[in-house]
Amino acid sequence: MLRVKTLVPSLCRGVNTAATKTAHHVPTLSQINSSATLPNLQSPSQLAQSSHLETLLPTNEFTQIKPKTKRPLLSNSKYEDSTYQLPQYVQTIGEVVIATLRLDMDRIRAGPIAGSHYYAECKTQSLQFADEELSPSAKFFYEELSLPRTFTQWFQITALHTWILSVRMRAMPFKYGRNYQQKIIDRFFRDMELRLHDEMNVNSSRISDQYLKDYNSQLRGIVCSYDEGFATDDAVLATALWRNLFNAREEVDFVKLEAAVKYVRGQLYILSMMSDREFALGKFRFVPPQEIVERFTEEQIAKMKAVAKEEYEPKDGKKILPSQKSKLSYEN
């Protein structure tokens, strides 16, 4: 398996893009908030559908995803089944071990939260198979934005969502944010390796490794260019989306490009309104492209903080279980 390091400034060196100047940018929540321009009361989906330009896509049957056997979303492990509950005695033993060894749960959670839960969120936004009905989020990308239904396009869309989450992860305390980033990137490439073999019928490990190296190089450029767009303005972000998500298409539909920018900015805004603890516990869900993101009022923000305080502060003398403890703030 190809080991992929967390995308940090040193990995952006040598990438042929002006974004290398801003690739090291570590955002604050206020910067994420202020960068999220939410211009009009149209959802990204509505905006994309308002375009009347016809887009002709190249067809390549080989790159379509037509697996004989589909892989599970994450794995066959019962521990990644959202309906699975640990037996009570196992939970009790676990709480004793955590308390006795004083384990740092903020570090331990990175695996199940970033590497499992958040990766599944990224993967499902554009997951598709030939001749199967698309999910609402996948329809936005493949039908409303007119993107080709290929494995490489799925990689581009999943990489975009991974980057969106990485922006919020970098705003966390460094040792935790970096760990979350590493877990989601590791899972991304492990899943691609398995999908190439099982669903794209790439049975040669040499060819598979070459694909993964190519995708790794692409991901470096993607992160650097999106970072530049995040740190500057919508025009630069639109250019990055055109170059990556739209594959530098010559006759790009600017209305659909604007819809993509609006979608990204909306996700970043919602992330900026979450505390470190809420995000680290897996509370975030991507806003469907059919929904409108509006700025919260001061009253709404105050109410959200009150709800978080009620949830995370010990009350009535009741102690928090060791597995639920966290050093991360719920007030930022």
Automatic annotation (TrEMBL):
Residues 323-332 have a biased composition (Polar residues). Residues 313-332 are annotated as: Disordered. It holds the Pfam family Ubiq_cyt_C_chap. GO terms for biological process: mitochondrial respiratory chain complex III assembly. One of its GO terms (cellular component) is mitochondrion. It comes from the Eukaryota. Residues 143-286 form the Ubiquinol-cytochrome c chaperone domain. InterPro entries: Ubiq_cyt_c_chap (IPR021150), Ubiqinol_cyt_c_chaperone_CPB3 (IPR007129). Belongs to the CBP3 family. This is Ubiquinol-cytochrome c chaperone domain-containing protein. The lineage of its organism: Eukaryota, Fungi, Dikarya, Ascomycota, Saccharomycotina.
